[in-house]
Write a structure and sequence with these properties.
This protein has 49 residues and is mainly β. It contains no helices and four strands. β3 (19-23) and β4 form a beta hairpin.
């Protein structure tokens, strides 16, 4: 699960976690180290494809 960069409650390495691996079997989440803001740093597709 990737989230937008904001002040999320869960932290990893001293900053808010922007991603997590979710286990549907036991309904638990483990924060992931995401190195870039997934909502603006990776670009956007062109509307014409």
């Amino acid at each position: 699960i990737l989230d937008k960069a904001e002040g999320n409650a869960t932290h990893i390495n001293g900053h808010p976690a922007w991603g997590a691996a979710y286990n549907i079997g036991n309904r638990s989440a483990v924060p992931m180290q995401v190195h870039a803001n997934t909502f603006c740093a990776f670009g956007m597709h062109l509307p014409n494809g």
